[in-house]
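User: Predict the structure for this protein chain, please.
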Amino acid sequence: MNSVWVIVLFDLPTETPLDRKEYAQFRKFLLDDGFTMMQYSVYMRHSASDENAAVHLKRVKSKLPPDGEVRILKITDKQFGKIEVFYGARRKPIEQAPEQLSLF
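Assistant: Here is the predicted structure, written as structure tokens:
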């Protein structure tokens, strides 16, 4: 079983009060569904399997705001591990997959 990361990137309008409300609702949905902010308007979620990732992809698609652009990227844990993260010229380690919870 391969673990995967689901990454949601979005650029939503914020000109009107309704735009800002829809932006906030979409962001709150992502957080409530277990996504964490990777950087501004980029959220990520680790999934233990491709099947689990498909569940979250379906949820995101069901909550898409009426305007703006949303992109969804699904990558393997190995691909995620190859991301290089920099703050200025200094390299920073990438986020780690959460520990698996085992129930017996």
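The chain has three helices and six strands.
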